[in-house]
Design brief:
Blueprint lengths: L1 H7 L8 H8 L1 H10 L18 E4 L11 H4 L15 H4 L9 E6 L5 E4 H7 L2 E9 L4 E11 H8 L7 E6 L19 E5 H4 L5 E6 L2 E2 L9 E3 L12 E7 L6 H5 L23 E4 L6 E2 L23
Parallel strand pairs: 1-4, 2-11, 5-12
Antiparallel strand pairs: 2-3, 4-5, 5-8, 6-7, 6-11, 8-9, 8-10, 12-13
This protein binds the ligand Nc1nc2c(c(=O)[nH]1)N[C@H]1C(S)=C(S)[C@@H](COP(=O)(O)O)O[C@H]1N2 and molybdenum atom.
Molybdenum atom binds next to loops.
Amino acid sequence: MQSKREEITPEGLYFSRRKFLKLAGLVGVSAALAACGIKPTPTPEAVPLSTLQTVSSNSLMNGDTLTPYDTITNYNNFYEFSLSKEDVAEKAQNFVSHPWTISVEGLVERPMQISIDELLQQYPLEERIYRMRCVEGWSMVIPWAGFPVYKLLKDVKVKDTARFVRFATQYNHDLFPNQGSFGFAWPYTEGLRLDEANHDLTILAVGLYNKVLPAQDGAPIRLVVPWKYGFKSVKSISKIELVEEQPQTFWNEAVFNEYGFYANVNPNVPHPRWSQESERRLGEAERRPTELFNGYTEVAPLYEGMDLTVDF
Ligand SMILES: Nc1nc2c(c(=O)[nH]1)N[C@H]1C(S)=C(S)[C@@H](COP(=O)(O)O)O[C@H]1N2
Ligand SMILES: [Mo]
């Protein structure tokens, strides 16, 4: 596995110089934002780039190979920038994701406002190699760098009354040009049941292939829930809210009968307009069968007693 990985990432473990220069140039950008009335949150100091190191890694699942970095970063769904997967990378190239603050609020004993830099100091990064299955029928295998959401939830002390977690992208039209358009309920919002959010597989990712997340993949921090369709994994999060009621979500609000709240990958529940029995793994010629829970069968106990064709 290790050698396969090295073939794919010649860049190795550290950030590229270009990325470094880009981050170093952000002071000027913050000043420009301040001039337009957007107050950037002061951050102590950017974490040294070489610290995006992971302390552990899981393994590839049987039959999987890592999707190349160039594929992962040039085929994206990120409607805030474009409705076309092929040009999100280009349209997002000037996105400024630093400084960035995340607020964890709602039904918690200790609400938290934390900069991305502080977050990186507080939560050691793990490499999590996960399958990503989009509801549209394509998939990838991505080596994320991130940390489990349960660690963050533990630190804010979730109140007994909380039952769901709501994750939202920052609403800022200057950063995300399409917010406000196409009749969607912006900002992009997603939700998980508290026990789903607390499952060890659920992570907040800040990098992939040991580099900071590129804008198109949800910089600076995004959710990754590998047993659910990709649309649950909201990008560029700035608010995490503990709530009592099941939150309204972006795609469910847009087309309620096509995109359920649970959105567990399930080959037995077709999308109303196409089958979900198989998928196209980017880079492969033949379609492959889609697996229940995207192959992450350890989450099955979360749904015991539920009818997954009803709670789809
Ligand atoms: N904020 C935001 N998050 C989002 C989306 C989006 O349009 N906006 N698209 C979702 C969809 S449909 C998918 S498949 C994944 C794609 O993640 P990737 O481009 O990093 O592969 O992001 C999800 N998160
Ligand atoms: Mo998707």
